[in-house]
Each structure stands twice: as C-alpha cells, then as structure tokens.
Amino acid sequence: MTRATMVSNGPMALDLVGWFLVLGAATGFAAGLLGIGGGMVMVPFITILLTSKGFPSEFIVKAAIATSLTTILFTSVSSVRAHAQRGAVRWDIAKTPAPGIVVGSIAGAQIAAALRGSVLSAGFGAFVALMATRMLLERPRSAHGTLPGHAGRFGMGAVIGVASAIVGAGGGFITVPFLTRARVKIHEAVATSAACGFPIALAGTVGYVYAGWGLDLPAGTIGYIYLPALASIVATSVLTAPLGARVAHAMDVGRLRTLFAMLLYALAAYMLWKGLYGH
C-alpha cells in the first residue's frame, strides 16, 4: 500500500456512533472489573464494525489499533491520578524507560502501518489468544531479579513501546510482569505500568497520525485514527471503568475471568480468520 493507492471508499458512518458508545461502555467496565486492557476487545470489535460498513480492508485493522491506542491518552490520566494519590506510582522507575518508550512507540506505529492488513490482523489474533491463555493459567510470579541500569531500561522501554504500538495496548502485558519479577510490589508495578501508558499512547498516536498523513483515507480520520470511534469510546469508557472497579471489590471475578478468556478466544479466532481469509 502506498500513499497514492489508498482509496477512500468508506464514508464516515455516523450510524456506528451508537455501537461505539456501547463498545466504550463495555470495554471500560471490563477493564475496571478484570484489570485488563480494553484494546484486546476494542480492536476486534472496531474491526467488525468498520468491516460491516465496507471500509477499505487495508485501512480497517490499522485504524482499529491506532484508535484503541489513542483512547489510552484519555483513560490513563484518571487511572494514574488515582494510583498517584495512593503513592503507588514509582516515578523513579517510570521516568527512565520513558525515552525508549517514546522511540519504540513511534517506530512501532510505522512498522504496523507498513505491514499488510492481513498480516497485522493475524498477528493481533495470535496475541489475543496468547493473552487469553495467560489469563486462564495465570499463577503468582516469583520475584527473582533486579531492575537493569539506565541503558537496560531504555532498551526495555523501546521493546514495550514497539509491541504496544503494534497491538494498540498500554504495555501492561509486558511492563507488569517485568517489574514484578524485578521485586517491585504488584500494586506499584500496576500503578507504574499505568504511568508508562501515557507516553506509549502519546508517541503511538503521533506515529499513527504521521504514518497515515497524506493518504487518501476515509472521512473522519486523522492519520489512521478514526475520530467517531475515538470520541464515542472515550465518552463512555471513562464513566464505566470506575463502576467496574467498584464491582470487582464486591464479588469474586475468577469465573468472570474464565468467561472473558473464552470471549477473547472467539475474538482471536475472528482476527485470525480475517487475516487468513477475510481479504
């Protein structure tokens, strides 16, 4: 795909806004309830909705990932504030990988934009299946390491940034295990991971705007970011995430995690099918 060959044959589908509002509410609630990133659900459902409206196939998955990543710009702020008020954010740790995160996130967006949509879709499906399996088999992790020096943290930040930008996530799937295995307390690891989510989202957003700049993309986009989806999802997810967190403290979510993992397997299968046969 080149800047000259992208065809704008997907009009801004305003009738999708209602579906995006529902999606935002559902992903926000799930994130608060189960402590998972909304991107694993958001990307497949945005893909389904845009596909149903006949958007260009090479645009769809990239737009879904870019839009999912950009939502973290808004959702991470309230999360980090809440963690910071409890003194849980390890700023001494978060600031050192930040330059690597910025470089990696920008690079990751360019890599994703350069990949064929089918490859990106199949890769995302494999990622979601892996995360679902980890959710089912998750066990307490042993702490057996220490944090690397500044160069090591820069490199780790770059890895987190690249991976997060490619899958449209906030990086917690790498950051939290990395920190807990380095003897950082779990609540501090989660809080510090949330703090790292903002530079990931900011740099990734810039990267996806640049990657799509000048392409003949459907109406309602800035680069690969689809604005109707972004605005709708953010509007409802920021309202339902705190509700999900409150419910989580009042019930056993173990069985819900299993059911949610089953949903993730179904979404992974769809993304794999789309990557292999849907183009």
Would you give an account of this structure?
There is one protein chain. Strands 1-2 form a two-stranded antiparallel sheet. It is globular. The protein contains 11 helices and 2 strands. The two termini are 14 Å apart. The longest helix has 29 residues, at 57-85. With 279 residues, the protein is an all-alpha fold. The chain has one domain. The protein has helices at 17-34, 39-52, 57-85, 91-94, 98-114, 117-137, 150-167, 172-180, 186-212, 227-248, 254-277; strands at residues 221-222, 225-226.
Assembly level? single chain
Rg over CA atoms, rounded to whole Å, is 18 Å
Task: Specify the overall morphology.
Answer: globular
- Characterize the largest beta sheet: strand count, sense, and whether it forms a barrel: 2 strands, antiparallel
Taken together, the total number of domains comes to 1
Order of strands side by side in the largest beta sheet?
1-2
The total beta strand count reads 2
Look at the helices and sheets and give the structural class.
mainly alpha
Q: Give helix and strand order, one letter per element, not per position.
A: HHHHHHHHHEEHH
Helices, by number, come to: 11
- Mean pLDDT reading: 84
Low-confidence stretches: 1-11
Q: In angstroms, what separates the terminal alpha carbons?
A: 14 Å
Helical residues, percent? over 70%
Give the strand content.
under 5%
Short structural description:
The protein has 279 residues and is mainly alpha-helical.
Distinctive features:
11 helices; mainly alpha; single chain
Topology, please?
Layout: H1 17-34, H2 39-52, H3 57-85, H4 91-94, H5 98-114, H6 117-137, H7 150-167, H8 172-180, H9 186-212, E1 221-222, E2 225-226, H10 227-248, H11 254-277
Antiparallel strand pairs: 1-2
